[in-house]
């Protein structure tokens, strides 16, 4: 049941992430003592109830790692993840199982995330079985039928196998499975990237309709800026595991403040979103640095056209460029550090 207006729970964000870090040890012949991959570095954000937060960035920026950390598929190295005030990072046993009921995930490749030997009925019903949400087989079957209908699949498909479905049908199946346990938050990790454009549009419309109907919060992870802008209320831009910019979707893509965001927007074909036509050209040179040894100071400085010597001195703080719009760049003009005494 939703909290009544004025209740403390109503004011508390659904999900709060503070200082999240995820490091992976370097393995294989190139391994050196103590070396780690800095996949996510000191990331803080929140997901509000009923909103869609977009997470964008180049390949290797840490987007999927963030999603995996939220449901504890990978263990955070440091930081806290709070779901309605409950510490996800410290949860064990039944507490962790309950968190995984409330946070569901839809992966890019639905075929790779299901057991191909199990029929669709059992795949969709898996959360029902794990969390013991149905008492009888008849109740289980009714719930599976409801879920298939909810995502636009015929109930006659329940006894087929994943390889018998099209790509769009498999993604609908994955969404049905994600919704089975009635989660509060759904993470969509590049959930439409492998689909044809026409099918992609259908799935995006389905997600929007289900979110409005069920009151879901969504974390939408993607690299297609036009899609992420269309789906999201707010946007976070990542680079080498660090937050470059965050704000209202229209503001971030319409008036990008960080050079990294400007480069991403400028790379969008000019006949796509309006922001791509309006943004100044920003051509990046050089390769993305290794996450094993990221640059000092601003991690984007080695490819930034505006970089100066001071960019190497310290990690830049987030500065306010507009209401609910922040960028981590010392070159952002006429901005004040968030939370400073003089900020409004």
Written account of the structure:
By secondary structure, the chain is an alpha/beta fold. 30% of the residues lie in helices and 21% in strands. The chain has 11 helices and 13 strands. A 9-stranded mixed β-sheet has the order 6-7-8-3-9-10-12-11-13, with helices on both faces. The chain has a 4-stranded antiparallel β-sheet with strand order 2-1-4-5, covered by helices on one side. The chain is globular. It starts with 7 loop residues before the first helix and ends in a 7-residue tail after the last strand.
- The neighbouring-strand order within the major sheet is 6-7-8-3-9-10-12-11-13
Strands, total number: 13
Structural class: alpha/beta
Shape: globular
Question: What is the helix/strand order?
Answer: HEEEHEEHEHHHEHEHEEHHHEEE
* Average of per-residue pLDDT values: 87
Q: What features would you highlight for this structure?
A:
single chain; 344 residues; alpha/beta; 9-stranded mixed beta sheet; 4-stranded antiparallel beta sheet; 13 strands; disordered N terminus; disordered C terminus
